[in-house]
Each structure stands twice: as C-alpha cells, then as structure tokens.
Amino acid sequence: MKLxxxxxxxxxxxxxxNTYMWPRVLPQGFLDExxxxxxxxxxxxxxxxxxxxxxKYVLGSGYGGYAAAPDVHDGTWDVIFxxxxxxxxxLDLPPSKGICDSAILLRxxxxxxxxxxxxxxxxxxxxxxxxGHWPEACAQAGIRLIDPRENVETIISEIRGARxxxxxxxxxxxxxxxxxxxxxxxxxxxxENAAKWxxxxxxxxxxxxxxxxxxxxxxxxxxxxxxxxxxYEGRARKLGKSAIAKPADRVLISLAARHLRxxxxxxxxxxxxxRLDNAFNRAMEAVEDFVRSRASIMERRP
Length: 302
Hints:
alpha/beta, 4-stranded parallel beta sheet, 11 helices, about 40% helix, about 15% strand
C-alpha cells in the first residue's frame, strides 16, 4: 500500500507530515510501493485524479475544492474517516466519517522538544515565500518566522516552543492546536486556500476567528485584490518584477510588519480539551480498526 500525498516543487509542512507521522503510527512494513493500493492521509487530496483502478484508503484527508470531487461510491474507495463535516457532506458520506484531520495523531508519540525562547511566531503559507517578503516583514516586526518548507521536526519543535503561533498555513493551526500551542488564524492571501479551514475547525466545534493579513509585496497585493482569480495567468508575477515593485514592496513590507505587531496583541484560540481528546480517540480507534482489518485480510490470502 503506497503512501500518497501532494508533492509540490518545494516541501510543505502539511504534506511532509505524512512521511514523518504515518511510519510512526502504523506497524512496520505496513506501507510499501505497491500503487495498486493507495493510502491517503494528511492533505486536501480527495480529487478525481487518482488512478481509477487503484484501491484508495482514506484516513483523515480532506476536500479542498482545488479539483472536482471524486465519486467515493464507485467501488474503489474505502473511506475510514475524513477531515471534517464539510468534506463528508461534499462526498455524500455519513457525518460520523468527518472526524478530524489526521495530523491530530501527532499526539500519540514523543515529539521533538520545544524550541526555547521563541516568543510569538508567524507561519506563512508555503506559497507566500515565492510571492511575498515575509522574512523581512517578520524581522521588522520582531517576531520569529517559521518556514513551512523546513524540516518537519524543526517546525514541530518551533510550534511547541512558541508562546503563540500566527498562521496563514492551516496545518500550522492544526498541529499547534493538537500540541496545545495557542494560535491565531489569518485569512490566506490566496483566497482559494481559505475554505478548507472551516472543514477542520467544525470537526472540533471551533468558531473560527480569522484575521486579515496585510500583503508583504506588490505581487501578493495583486493576488489578494483579485482573490487569486488571475494568479496563475502570469500577470501578478510580471507585476512583481516590474519597475514599480521595489519601492512598493518596501512600503508593503513595513505595513505588513506593523500589522503583524497588531496581530500579536490579539486573543489566540485553542479547541476545548474534551473535543480534541474525543477527536483524537475516534481517529486513533479508526486507524487501529483499519490496521486490524488489513492484517486479517493478509492472513487469509494464500
């Protein structure tokens, strides 16, 4: 059974959690390179592009709206649980299947120690590093930047050590909440990345309080102003390299830094302990039942 997750041109914390977490949660040798069976875990990867003939097993994945939804009732899907109630409704699944994002299972095992003296930190969406100037904005604001392209263990350590995490990256919030680091959600610069947050939040009964995020570049300003509708047409990238970009970016970096300082004074969020524990226990039970059923099937094979 092959571990299947989104692989972009650069590493991304939420996606790379799959390679860090599942080998620690599942029995040794459970995963292999047999692509006739696909194991779908963390990420908004429930779309119709997966191989039609492969058997798909879903454990905590979500629907993000990036592509058409799959027909999970065509006989090739085994949905153990999904990220939240919105994914369950989109795929015409029982509400009981919308347990939580499977990154909650990080609570099961020992994790890297918390980084010391981190204070308040900001984690942008990984796409924001190619279109914005967040290292400069964080430096001016005097807060720690957590790079979602970094090593998974490094990021976990930094999240654990933060007094509060301001995050544009959804899995920044998911992991912070699971590890009990207070977090503050900001609306993604690219509006397309916003909808999936509610799916996860509703799985934990969270009334999500999203704050605006000030663009740190002319490129980001364009993407934000157009709600991402023209982002992939190339106009935004051309604008970001134009003659007016450098002076405009200096101003926007300063405004973004000022806004980050303002966000540092906002009240962070955490899910209720009992809701988190309930979701963790249900997800863990679902994984264990799945592993037992697979072991039983393998034992019966000649």
